[in-house]
Amino acid sequence: PTGLTLACGTLIEPVLQRVVDRLNRIDGMSARLLPIVNQFFGEMVTVSGLLMGQDVVAAIKAAGAQRVLLPRVMFDHTGTRTLDEYTLERIAAESGASVAIAGEPDEVARYVRALAKSSEA
């Protein structure tokens, strides 16, 4: 099966769990949710937009995730850097995972379709 982990802040976990449940209905898809506790600002800060790259890397490594979709909102307006100056490439290098960014449900859907096509090839 094709594995996919959706990373997020803890606030949106219940909403994204429904997305993950729907993804798992797709034949050959194995999706899971990775709600990340904000260690930098404290666990009271639950929004995805204030996640730090260092917290994301630690969570990905602890979960052993191989393919991760990160929330676009955790990056600056250009989609380049997190608040602690991590780039997508740095997160990938330090976590050892393949990472991509998605902000809207249609972006998740496009990513999943591309994954399905690449696994068929």
What is the domain tally? Answer: 1
The run of helices and strands is EHEHEHEH
Rg calc: 14 Å
Beta content comes to: 15-25%
Kindly provide the name of the CATH class: Alpha Beta
The CATH architecture term is: 3-Layer(aba) Sandwich
Termini separation: 14 Å
Instruction: Output the strand order for the largest sheet.
Output: 2-1-3-4
Oligomer: single chain
Helix content: 25-40%
| Average of the residue pLDDT scores | 93
Q: If you consult CATH, what is the topology?
A: Rossmann fold
Main sheet properties: 4 strands, parallel
Runs in which pLDDT lies below 50 for 5 or more consecutive residues are none
> Judging from the principal axes of the Cα atoms, what is the shape?
globular
Structural class: alpha/beta
Task: Quickly count the helices.
Answer: 4
> How many strands?
4
